[in-house]
From TrEMBL:
Keyword Protein transport on entry: no
Pfam families: NMT1_2
UniProt organism field: Funiculus sociatus GB2-A5
Protein localization: Cell inner membrane
Annotated protein name in UniProt: ABC transporter substrate-binding protein
Region of interest: Disordered: 33-60
Keywords on record: Cell inner membrane, Cell membrane, Ion transport, Membrane, Signal, Transport
Length: 456
């Protein structure tokens, strides 16, 4: 593997992810719900959309595909496309949604593909599609080429902290908390925080928050991958101080007085990219029309979800046994942008809710290549990938990111030209600490950062 340097990242992944083989260190569904045996094949039950009069030239090569999902709000477009009949509307009448026990199992099932009992693709944290393509997190470093096809959502995550730390100035901006972290470190009881899978979204969110506040996540504390359900139990017993979590965990954490929300990722990076739809390259290459049909169904679901009048129905669907298996009221407030942070703050702002089709900065669904570049640059920042990766970043991204397929599908679906981005870059991004990421100069971004592993 020439571009991503196997020896650097694979060794780290074996140390942190390898234990998933015994099911003990990775996410067991972000909501703590076990998967249905053999996965869940959902049947359309609610208000299915009428079948489209499909142009024979656009008819899918196959109506069947198996898509993996983890039961968190990021998976909503897949579930709504299935349940509202949007997949079927475009000829994908045989979509199977398979609930995954962990991100580790999602990776494993992607490796073997649906022919081997796994999946053809589905929902992924970033940059998992790139890491799988380059064989960095696969068994034996086998390269499984992937195509990244759409962004599923923005927002929907945050940093939860144990209630015992209320009043210790642990918040979005921590002016006085560094001394507290140092005291714990000196007493050999370092602040311990968790995320659900190493070197992807939720790891990056908590690392960025800590580092922006002067805390080195690799030197000043312990940061480890742990299943969400186990993390909450550890937080209750006092052995876990914080974790990077996704909706609707904030509701449960605060309601059960387990902890409070120090920050939402929507506060850290407004309108940030979250999780993505990706498929194995071999499946897409064999079924290009079916791929676009899947995308059309996802796009329609995303538009449906962004009508807030539909969100009450959405949480009823998502909360059902086949999917999240929880009371709909646990989902409703976060989906409406309402957060009791548990520390006296209450956020009631729809702009902080998850968005699926369009946010304040424009398209959510379109997979901007500039966002891929940020995830790769952040991987270099923390030493997950060698600095030399940046020199090859365009090649790496172009190989995986198929925004061109998204554009084709959008045009075939009759999406308004104004909703189809004309650039593969969303431009300069700004974070809560004032740091800016210019995709034209990722090295300059790294140079701004005080805490990092890379020397840039």
């Amino acid at each position: 593997m020439s571009q991503f340097s196997n020896q650097v990242s694979r060794r780290k992944f074996l140390l942190t992810v390898g234990a998933s083989a015994v099911g003990s260190v990775l996410l067991k569904g972000c909501l703590g719900n076990p998967p249905e045996p053999g996965g869940t094949q959902a049947q359309t039950t609610s208000g299915a959309a009428p079948a489209a009069n499909i142009n024979p030239e656009q008819a899918p090569e196959t109506p069947k595909v198996k898509l993996g999902f983890v039961p968190i709000v990021e998976s909503a477009p897949l579930i709504i496309a299935q349940e509202k009949g949007f997949f079927a509307k475009y000829g994908m009448t045989g979509v199977e949604l398979s609930k995954q026990a962990s991100w580790g199992s999602m990776r494993d099932n992607t490796e073997i593909g649906s022919a081997g009992g796994g999946v053809d693709g589905g929902q992924y944290q970033m940059p998992m599609p790139h890491l799988i393509t380059e064989g960095i997190i696969t068994k034996g470093n086998q390269k499984i080429p992937m195509y990244l096809l759409a962004q599923l959502n923005t927002h929907g995550n945050g940093i939860a902290v144990a209630s015992k730390h209320l009043g210790k100035e642990i918040s979005l901006k921590m002016n006085g908390a560094t001394a507290f972290f140092n005291q714990l470190k000196s007493a050999n009881t370092p602040f311990t925080a968790a995320h659900t899978f190493p070197q992807v979204n939720q790891d990056f969110w908590i690392r960025y928050w800590l580092a922006a506040n002067g805390i080195d996540p690799d030197a000043d504390m312990k940061l480890i991958p742990v299943p969400s359900a186990q993390t909450v139990a550890n937080m209750k017993t006092g052995t876990m101080d914080a974790f990077s979590t996704g909706d609707p965990w904030p509701y449960r954490i605060v309601k059960d007085k387990i902890g409070f929300m120090a920050a939402l990722t929507a506060e850290m990076w407004k309108n940030h990219p979250e999780e993505y739809l990706a498929l194995r390259k071999d499946w897409v290459d064999k079924n290009p029309k079916a791929t676009k049909a899947i995308l059309k169904g996802i796009m329609e679901a995303q538009q449906w979800l962004d009508n807030f009048d539909n969100r009450k129905e959405a949480v009823q669907i998502l909360g059902s046994r086949n999917y999240f298996n929880l009371a709909p009221e646990i989902l409703e407030n976060p989906m409406m942008g309402k957060y009791d942070m548990g520390d006296g703050r209450v956020i009631d702002d729809k702009s902080m809710a998850p968005y699926y089709w369009k946010d304040e900065k424009g398209s959510v669904s379109y997979p901007y290549k500039s966002h891929d570049l940020w995830f790769i640059t952040e991987s270099v920042r923390w030493g997950f990938l060698p600095e030399s990766t940046l020199a090859n970043a365009k090649t790496i991204i172009d190989k995986v990111n198929r925004e061109d397929i998204w554009r084709e599908a959008a045009k075939e679906a009759g999406i308004a030209a104004a909703d189809i981005p004309t650039s593969t870059s969303r431009g300069v991004e700004e974070f809560f600490d004032g740091v800016k990421f210019d995709p034209e100069n990722p090295t300059a971004y790294l140079q701004q950062l005080k805490i990092k592993k890379v020397k840039a």
